[in-house]
Amino acid sequence: MQNGSLALVNGRFRTMDPSLPLAEAALVQDGRITRVGSNSEVRAAARGVEEFDAAGRTVVPGFIDGHAHFEMTCCALALCLSVTTPPYNTLAAIAAAIRERIEMTPPGEWLVVRCSFNLYARVEEGRLFTRQELDAISEQHPIAIHSSLHVSMLNTLAIKELGLWDNEPPRGTIVHYAEDGTPTGVMTEVWDLVPPFTRSQVTGAIREKAMELFISKGITTIHNLPYSEHDMLAVQDLHESNELPIRFRVYPHVGHQIDLDGLLAMGLKPGFGNDWMRFGGVKIFVDGVGHDGYGNRVYDLKWEEDALIEFICRAHAAGQQLWMHVCSQPAIRLICDGIEEALRRHPAPHRHRIEHSADYLIDDADIERVEKLGILTITTPAFIYAQGDVLSLPGSQRWPRRFRLRTLVDRGFPVIGCSDSTGSIPDGIAPLFNIACAVTRRTLSGGTYVPEEALTV
Fold this sequence. Notes:
Structural class: alpha/beta
CATH superfamily of the largest domain: Metal-dependent hydrolases
Radius of gyration: 23 Å
Number of domains: 3
Number of helices: 16
Shape: globular
Largest sheet: 6 strands, mixed
CATH topology of the largest domain: TIM Barrel
CATH architecture of the largest domain: Alpha-Beta Barrel
């Protein structure tokens, strides 16, 4: 493509425009689609622009990933040690891979390991690592193993560096203790305490992985949740050097990156920015992963209820869009309480979202309440594939998670799809894979999970 211009012809263009649902060709000029229509119409307008013959292939608009941790994903698969299950089906195999990496890691440097969801249920040992096992691998390196992102196993040095050996853990964090009162090494909700990668490391990871993981999957826009200032700076650097053809809408994590007072003091409104990077609003975690690391249900609320409701009211009154993470039904209900109060105090249009709500909404009464309040619902269909087998286990103690997508779509909900990628499920980034999961409801073992809620295409 020369100067951002290209004429695409002889394709099957699905435009998503009801007035012209199908077309043969499209013209891109200076990086923008300026015409869609027949081959002859596009060629007449192209005026010598380079031509690409789609040869009858289907062409669709670029995909928008409605919720992803872009930089974290690139870093997880370029800088961390990635040991997904399969093929790493035992703790012993994972430990061997960690030992091999440790030999190449300078003493004192963190080693962050990324594993699959529900590691305890997927490895042959049927459990998680202890800190003593990780100490046996190295006492000279802080080691953090994340099963997905929210369940972690740490060695003693890492626990001490994060201040979790003697101190009370943050609200919503679960630390397992041995009989002698010392941490076992298994914890939840400590991922945001681990030191971030540097600006240059993030930049290198994006250069290495962005094309493979996101751009090649047809993703052109990401609603993004950066981990640190280094992530934000790296993306801006790559935009300035024309190395990153992805648009971002950025939602800082309030409570981790900045507090609400500081953010509001900046005077940013959702939409501020340019075509490549815009400020979107506020991301918060209302609860955590919703279990203790071994699948036993907990309500790991990260807020005092009154404080959360007041936060929602303040952000809403300031015109901010709120993204609110949940992994339980009580958290959804608490958010609804907050939005009801916010609308009572300050009636105004909004586009507040409950992340993962389309996966966790079970009761019709909750669905009706979310609908009445105008809250946007979000789903990650790849989690059906990654977690459906564990959710199907007899006697599962987890919060119910049925992904009632058919029900929501039939009621008219504009359900937003996303990968929620952090690097735990590399295959789960592709939008087409997520669409397939929503349609087939297939799990990792080849079974199906709640097939009556399948969508059609």
